[in-house]
Amino acid sequence: MNLIVAADKNWGIGKDNKLLVSIPSDMKFFRQETMGKVVVMGRKTLESFPNGLPLKNRTNVVLTSDKNYQVKDAVIVHSIDEVLEELKKYDDDEIYVIGGGKVYEELLPYCDVAHVTKIDFAFEADTHFPNLDEDPEWEITATSDEQTYFDLEYTFVKYERK
């Protein structure tokens, strides 16, 4: 299973249920990686999308504790066990965990590849991703050249579980 995330230099990933910054090439990378695949997210992440609608051309699996929650064109599950059961229907390589913080935390143990857009700036954040650089189970297997968006520098980094 894969995960995909954009994190600042303190591994911050969001504030007030929004991304810290929107970088066009990061959005493009996200679309390229996840198009036609399965994306797994929490309810708040889904609701942060335009009109709160599932991502097009992807199988959207949404985790929520609300038993009455329903969204057209999304698979709704209510526990990590239910998520894992649902994901058995798909090829591991086709699955991308896309947030938010709690969902990343709960599904990280099941992921083997992490695509991290590392932004060289410290934003004010209220949601963080675990620091993979300090986790001995993970290693960097690929890094892009440094890129710039206005005054922000960032790299695309691929981590793989050892």
UniProtKB/TrEMBL annotation:
UniProt-listed Enzyme Commission number(s): 1.5.1.3
Main EC class the enzyme belongs to: oxidoreductase
Keyword NADP: yes
The keyword Nuclease appears for this protein: no
Keywords: NADP, One-carbon metabolism, Oxidoreductase
Coiled-coil residue windows: none
Record-linked Gene3D superfamilies: Dihydrofolate Reductase, subunit A (3.40.430.10)
GO molecular function terms attached to this record: dihydrofolate reductase activity; NADP binding
Top-level taxon: Bacteria
Reaction(s) this enzyme catalyzes, per UniProt: (6S)-5,6,7,8-tetrahydrofolate + NADP(+) = 7,8-dihydrofolate + NADPH + H(+)
PANTHER family: DIHYDROFOLATE REDUCTASE
Family: Belongs to the dihydrofolate reductase family.
Protein name as annotated: Dihydrofolate reductase
Source organism (scientific name): Oliverpabstia intestinalis
Taxonomic path: Bacteria, Bacillati, Bacillota, Clostridia, Lachnospirales
